[in-house]
Amino acid sequence: MLAGAAAIVLARPAAALGQRSDEAVLVRLVAREEAAVEAYASEPLPGLRADEEEHAAALRTHLDALGRRPAPKGLDPVARRVAESSGSRQLEAAIALEASLVEAYSAALLDLEAPGVVQTAATILASHAQHLALLRERAGVDPLA
Question: I need a surface site. Which of 62, 111, 125, 131 has the fewest CB within 10 A?
Answer without folding.
Answer: 111
